Amino acid sequence: MSTIASTEKIVKAASRPTGRVAAYWIVTGILAFSIALSGIGQLMRYGGNVDLVTDIGFPLYITSILGVWKLLGVIAIVLPGLPRLKEWAYSGIFFLMTGAALSHAFANDYGDYGFHIILPLFYAALGLVSWALRPASRRL
Fold first, then answer.
1. Longest C-alpha distance within the chain, in Å?
2. What is the tens place of the pLDDT at every residue in 99-129?
3. Above 80 in pLDDT, residue 26?
4. Which of 4, 62, 81, 119 is spaced 20 to 30 Å from 112 by Cα?
5. What distance in Å separates the CA atoms of residue 97 and residue 119, rounded to the nearest whole number?
6. Which parts of 1-140 fold into alpha helices (H)?
7. Torsion of CA 36, 129, 131, 41, to 10 degrees
8. To 5 degrees, how large is the angle CA 9–CA 11–CA 14?
């Protein structure tokens, strides 16, 4: 009897959805890397970050606030544990990115081929996919 029970456990352990876990880490890695680079760029006021913010009417100091929030969100999502903090970080990234897209749209600053709208919405979608694919150990 114990052999049957132990082989059932082995079969259950072997049939974990590794594809889902791999998809989660790939999507989360892309999201974390992109948001972290964006946050660092805003903190350093590197490249077009200054123009991107000031062209739509925001003060320059907002780059420091957004940069810190982005980096803290990435840290919360990537580190193990703290599932409630992860929920807040995912929602923060979603609201930050959809807010960026809407801010650019309302300011008629679409960028080349709508880039200023499409890119933040793409990051918001990545955040939703990462949230939906997260393993049970990262859920509330």
1. 72
2. 999 999 999 998 889 899 999 999 999 999 9
3. yes
4. 62
5. 9
6. 2-14, 18-44, 49-54, 62-78, 83-106, 115-133
7. 10
8. 110
